Amino acid sequence: MKVISLINMKGGVAKTTLSVNIADYLYRRHNKKVLLIDVDPQFNATQCLMSPDEYVEYINQGRDTIVNVFDRNFRPTISFTEGSGITTPKKLEEIEPYQVKQGFKLLPGALDLYKLEMAPGEGREYRIKNYLNTVKDKYHYIIIDTPPTPSVWMTSALLASDHYLIPVKPDPISMTGIDLLNGIISEKTENFGMKINCCGVVLTVIEENTIVYKNAIGNLDSADRWKGKRFSKGLPKRITLARKQLEQKMILDLDDSLLKSNLASIVNELIERTD
């Protein structure tokens, strides 16, 4: 089982787009058993894979989300018919992901993640890792979509991962931001004594014939820290892609040969880099 987190502290870099489509491509083109974990409290990946009505029904049925992984507290309950009692958290091995219509599994995100009190010393940073230990024989790949902020959620994803992938737009601000990201990840790995491999940088929302894109390639390839880390293909800019995602359409469902070809290259290179 390979665990790969997609990480960037800047929003709007197509991190979620890449996460859901990597999971989809691994399942549909490589016949891999895949679990996508949405650990971003904004749960954008979940919205790309479940319609609003589908998600509301799922929540109303009391089914599992990422909150079940992090919320391990026993809670008092009061009922007019049954009196007081205690609600016990579900065991990690009992948490059941949702099979999306594309075929792979999803542990949905939830806005309620914001409500959890994250006091230090509770060990919540290890919750995703502990959960994955209960499913390690069920999947070939775990893809984790992380929030765009340094947080306990990001730390938990890193601690559970073997590799991390950085999606980044080829603009100067985003390019500067990945150096800051690298520093934060280095700090986390040192503090927690973990080992994790940066499997590379994928340029996203690209327009290949622009000076901005060519400068980004030059900057990445010449920087000692990122030399050899750039994926050979990037994710092209497509205005319609975001709209289609909210209709639960994947890149493989679109009539766009360049987009599909570049996605194939990204996933194939990802497989090689994480072997």
Q: Could you give the topology of this structure?
A:
Elements: E1 2-6, H1 15-30, E2 34-38, H2 44-49, H3 52-60, H4 66-70, E3 75-79, E4 83-87, E5 98-99, E6 105-107, H5 127-133, E7 141-145, H6 152-160, E8 163-168, H7 172-192, E9 197-206, H8 211-222, E10 235-236, H9 239-245, H10 257-273
Parallel strand pairs: 1-7, 1-8, 2-6, 2-7, 8-9, 9-10
Antiparallel strand pairs: 3-4, 5-6
Structure report:
- With 275 residues, the protein is an alpha/beta fold.
- The protein has helices at 15-30, 44-49, 52-60, 66-70, 127-133, 152-160, 172-192, 211-222, 239-245, 257-273, and strands at 2-6, 34-38, 75-79, 83-87, 98-99, 105-107, 141-145, 163-168, 197-206, 235-236.
- It has one domain (3-273): P-loop containing nucleotide triphosphate hydrolases (Rossmann fold).
- The protein contains ten helices and ten strands.
- The relative contact order is 0.20.
- The model is unreliable at 74-86 (pLDDT under 50).
Shape descriptor reads globular
Largest sheet, order of strands side by side? 5-6-2-7-1-8-9-10
CATH topology, by name, is: Rossmann fold
Unreliable residue stretches: 74-86
CATH homologous superfamily descriptor: P-loop containing nucleotide triphosphate hydrolases
Number of strands: 10
The biggest beta sheet is recorded as:
8 strands, mixed
Structural class: alpha/beta
CATH class: Alpha Beta
Integer average pLDDT:
89
Number of helices: 10
Write down the secondary-structure element order: EHEHHHEEEEHEHEHEHEHH
